[in-house]
Amino acid sequence: MVGVQVDGARHRADLVVACSGRHTRFLDLLAERGFPAPEMSAVRIDLACGTRVVPRQPDDLTRAVAIEVDDPAQSHRMGRMVPAEGNRWIITLGSFHDDAPPIEPAAYEDFARCLPSPLIADVLARTEALTPVLTYRMPTSRRRHVERLDRTPAGFLVLGDAICSLNPLHAQGMSSAALQAQALGRAIARHGLTSPQLARAFYRQAAKVVDAPWRLAAAADFADPCADGPESVGTGLLNRYLDMVLRACRTSIPVARQTLRVQNLLARLASLMTPAMVVRVLLAARRSPAAATNPADREAGSPVG
Ligand SMILES: Cc1cc2nc3c(=O)[nH]c(=O)nc-3n(C[C@H](O)[C@H](O)[C@H](O)COP(=O)(O)OP(=O)(O)OC[C@H]3O[C@@H](n4cnc5c(N)ncnc54)[C@H](O)[C@@H]3O)c2cc1C
Fold first, then answer.
1. Is the CB of 168 under 6 A from ligand 1?
2. CATH number of the structural domain 43-138
3. What is d(CA 260, CA 256) in angstroms, rounded to the nearest whole number?
4. InterPro entries of this UniProt entry (predicted)?
């Protein structure tokens, strides 16, 4: 790889980094030129979202950082409301497995009304939306195992969603891409911009970055029995434990705080599995009013709210 061509103009480059997202075609083009294609893991989620922006009134949930409403044990539907600059809310309603939120405003509000809390529907009911409902679908979360490639072209690599594209509801893709960019910086400092070892060294580091969000997202996605795909080793057990962690978040501030740090890629997944944390999680999950999403745990008598 010697450079790029943009709008007909050629630019030489020592290194081309393709951040062309989930639908990148570069890896397919390389495969057509005789380089191995990376293996891919995918989890079928059939996510459908509808987002609209509404004004935030001065007395709207004044202390709220963000609102998330779902009950995975009962329904595939969820809603999220995040404050944005300029006194606005970004509202996203979504569902998995063929239950897309409608785009017609009244039906959209009805969809919000079906959620376990009326908070989002109430905000929709008392404001004039600033945008129409914008829709997005994602059939699968997927990961390309670039770290397993035994041959890569010199002077070229991919980064970001091109490596791992996660269920956006877990909100980890940008953090993952940023951490990959940091890992690339370190790999360049160590091996040099033009080293033939650079891509493989970077891909090994990128795999470490991606591993935690991929496992977390896949674990959460597999909590839904309709999710389909090859589970990584330990995912079933991890799912059951994370299900408990999420229930424990309702009754334990230390568990909730550490879970948020892990979800936002500020702490390692292993930090939720230290002996002290496991004890906290077990005790707090028993007190939690939230229902277990895992049928085995429900049958075993975990509290159902
Ligand atoms: C609905 C939705 C909500 C999300 N919410 C969050 C969130 O809250 N938090 C979070 O962390 N992440 C979120 N994500 C994920 C996040 O957007 C992605 O993980 C992140 O943008 C990935 O960055 P990227 O640069 O790898 O790819 P992208 O942001 O997809 O950028 C790729 C760019 O490359 C361009 N491109 C593609 N092919 C070519 C080509 N041949 N030539 C030139 N340009 C090309 C594309 O047009 C695009 O602009 C969300 C994603 C979606 C879809």
1. yes
2. 3.30.70
3. 6
4. FAD/NAD-bd_sf (IPR036188)
